[in-house]
Amino acid sequence: MSLLEDNQSTDLEQMVGLSRRGFISAGALCGAALFMGGNLLSRSVLAASVSAGNSKLLGFASIPAATADSISLPPGYKSSVLISWGQPLHKNGPAFDPSGHGSAEQQEVQFGDNNDGMSLFAFPGDDNRALMAINNEYTNYRYLFPHAGMPQSAEEVHKALASEGVSVIEVRRKNGHWQFVQDSRYNRRIHGNSPITLSGPAAGHDLLKTSADPQGTTVLGTFQNCANGQTPWGTYLTCEENFTDCFGSSNTEQKFDAAQKRYGAVATSKEINWHQHDPRFDLAKNPNELNRHGWVVEIDPFDPQSTPVKRTALGRFKHENAALTQTRDGHAVVYMGDDERGEFIYKFVSRDKIDHKNPKANRDLLDHGTLYVAQFDAGDGNADHPKGKGVWVELTHGKNGIDAGSGFADQAEVLINVRLAASVVKATRMDRPEWIVVSPKDGQVYCTLTNNAKRGDDGQPVGGPNPREKNVYGQILRWRTDRDDHGSNTFAWDLFVVAGNPQVHAGTPKGGSSNITPQNMFNSPDGLAFDKAGRLWIQTDGDASNAGDFAGMGNNQMLCADPVTGEIRRFMVGPIGCEVTGISFSPDQKTLFIGIQHPGEFGGSTFPEHLPNGKPRSSVMAITREDGGIVGA
Ligand code: FEO
Ligand code: CA
Ligand code: CA
């Protein structure tokens, strides 16, 4: 979801003309540092992690920024639409209705809106057949309804819920092109009205009971599904993010307790008025419904009849994605970010080991384990490339001051209100953690910190991995666990890149770190993925005004980095008003699937069909090389 307010709320600063890096490339600067010493020494020290622009890993030419209503790619690359919002999942299903008059029932059998995180599940032994599970994060009323405004009835709330959640689709490769298989028995929608089971330590807790579900074990729906995870046992994880925006109160004087406030409860919903038409979202009538969202949900894409499961052991917050890896001795590890200004980064370690021989044996693996939160030190304060140490602090009832005295009756309450528990142990308040990924090459973990215009205010100190006051550009953090074991609770961190605009601001911090140049600059890194070769793909969800602090950056885009040299090249630019989010690869790495979310968020786009007066449609795109080679190589 676009959260432009962070950037928009920042005063545009005066143009200061070309900085040094307006005419000296990062590579040239590293060379210059050899001769100049002094305050450029830090840049020469960083030379090992900043490329001279000749990465062997990156085999494509960096492309310029763009503001067109189309997809820009390097020479030798092409893209096509795999599937778009509203496409019927089954034969004879209702076609996309651009008028907006289509019903909720129609949405429930069409590909959902605003696709976000996604994973590809190959069929064993068949390189040309796969399932894809794709999140549908939210909907844009401008295009969902004929009146282009907020829902005006219970039926319209139902339709909005039907457009969100997850789409599972089958894809097949024919003549070198991956295509959506319209009538596959696996095609399925899981949406905001679908029954979902609650499991793990918080299931059945009083705080999760409602009049519609007195047992506290079955929730209606998953919605605001942002990014994702893929388990080694063949299931999909969909992560509920901006759920708090969906609630409001018919009692405009309603007072909220500390936990409700921390999770964003307000009487007047910011941009969604569901509570006015559906009592489920009315905090005056159903206060516990808020506690039943904000979880990671596990789905078996290969069993269309299966009921998805909300895994409460992973904690409740505004989940971005869920990055799976394992400890040296075989326990599952899930890294997760809470995308809110000043919130935290978490790690879950399963109690039991992954059974790689029998996938079904891992069915409830994510129900038992230990949750931790990250604490980062202040680091060495290096302006260009800060680094330091960190620790994982356990969030278990009865440990580290988390107990009845600090407001938690049991572990279920710790998990339901885990933001409060993490504050008890003084976790580090981050610049909006978005995606987290683990390198297939060296096990280092990378996390986008997208932006935080409030850094420096509101008790959020400037320093450590959050080094920039009123941070409108974002940065990418990485850490290496001690002994290269994700089971270790100590690690070393550094900033892989600090985004910025060297054409508008001279030097760090606002000009960005030395691997940012006028040729590759971007803002608000968000989606992240490693391919098999270890290229790091970076997607943006930022300010696409192309003006002020963001002049010259163009539309939202995707870049690709060499994690060893630090070089970053721009690979793709998306259409007007879009966010680029969601990424997966075909098993042979020759097709790259990416998501174009909310093209024309504020109008001005007809992507991808470009029909006269046509509506823009969020879409999954397949990107390939004209010579059939590996993407990025
Ligand atoms: Fe859905 Fe934090 O992005
Ligand atoms: Ca995101
Ligand atoms: Ca974002």
TrEMBL record:
PROSITE patterns: TAT. It holds the Pfam family PhoX. Gene3D superfamilies: TolB, C-terminal domain. It comes from the Bacteria. Signal peptide: none annotated. InterPro entries: 6-blade_b-propeller_TolB-like, PhoX, TAT_signal. PANTHER family: DUF839 DOMAIN-CONTAINING PROTEIN, SLR8030 PROTEIN. This is PhoX family phosphatase. It comes from Pseudomonas reinekei.
